[in-house]
Specification:
TIM Barrel; eight-stranded parallel β-barrel; 39% helix; 15% strand
């Protein structure tokens, strides 16, 4: 069955994310390795590495992914922002390598009004530069996006273009966010529309590129291009859309993490994970 989990806070130390995911009985974890709103985070210390490794060893089979900083825009046409983004993402890749995190999720960025084609070309070139600087085995997962503003990555064709044109296409996969693809116009609510969406992805990108999922319902409707996460079954996607995904045998062993709102007691994560588990056909 899919490995259901959540994005958890690293407040107080990276290793504490493992305590939090265990509190909600999760089987997959996503974190920020550093504050996602800062350009120049401190380096990972030897003590951090040890604490993180020790905490992970208590759940050694748990898949872990990092989510790159929201500040990073590898598609930017502003040379200073592009350079800062390359450096920051290379640093993220190196942090992940030190922590033994094999996957890092990144949004394909924004073209800033210069057009999709130019934006995709810049993103791909700058992604390659960051991968060259980091020079490690961490896999980059392009996250599907809702298509707000001048954001890239809301169409499967755009993801395919990046992968095809990267010199490092073997190191690139995809993270599918259910809220984002729905907001971008891909319907997953019925078995028929779900299959059509996945068939389109497979024909354009390749289903084998999907390595990770973000499970979020959507506050806004199909094709709204608005990224607003909702609790599972309480949004416009609804329960059946998640039932279709969770019982797709192609994703039986894939990590799937919540990015839904929650408080400090994490009860919302427990509730959402319980809802998801109830949809599994065992």
């Amino acid at each position: 069955m899919p490995l259901l989990g959540a994005h958890e806070s690293v407040a107080g130390g990276l290793h504490l994310a493992f305590d939090r995911i265990r509190q909600v009985d999760g089987a997959a974890l996503q974190i920020f390795t550093r504050n996602q709103r800062q350009w120049n985070p401190v380096q990972v210390s030897d003590e951090e590495q040890k604490l993180f490794a020790d905490a992970w060893q208590k759940s050694p089979d748990m898949p872990v992914a990092s989510h790159a900083s929201y500040l990073v825009n590898l598609a930017s046409g502003k040379p200073d922002l592009a350079e800062k983004s390359i450096a920051a993402f290379a640093d993220e890749l190196q942090r992940c390598a030190l922590l033994k995190i094999p996957l890092v999720v990144i949004h394909p960025g924004s073209h800033g009004g210069d057009g999709v084609e130019i934006g995709l070309e810049r993103f791909t070139q700058n992604l390659d530069l960051a991968l060259e600087r980091a020079d490690n085995t961490v896999t980059v997962l392009l996250e599907t996006t809702a298509g707000q503003g001048t954001g890239l990555g809301s169409r499967f064709e755009e993801l395919a273009r990046i992968i095809e044109n990267s010199k490092y296409h073997k190191k690139i996969g995809v993270c599918v966010d259910t809220c984002h693809i729905f907001a971008a116009g891909y319907d997953i609510r019925s078995p028929k529309s779900y299959q059509a969406t996945m068939d389109e992805f497979d024909s354009l990108v390749g289903i084998e590129r999907i390595k990770f999922f973000h499970l979020n319902d959507s506050k806004k409707g199909l094709g709204s291009r608005v990224d607003r996460h909702e609790h599972i079954g309480q949004g416009e996607i609804g329960i059946e859309g998640f039932r279709n995904l969770l019982n797709d045998p192609r994703f039986a062993n894939h990590p799937m993490t919540l990015e839904t709102p929650k408080g400090k007691d994490l009860q919302e994560d427990r509730d959402n994970l319980s809802t998801l588990r109830g949809l599994l056909v065992l």
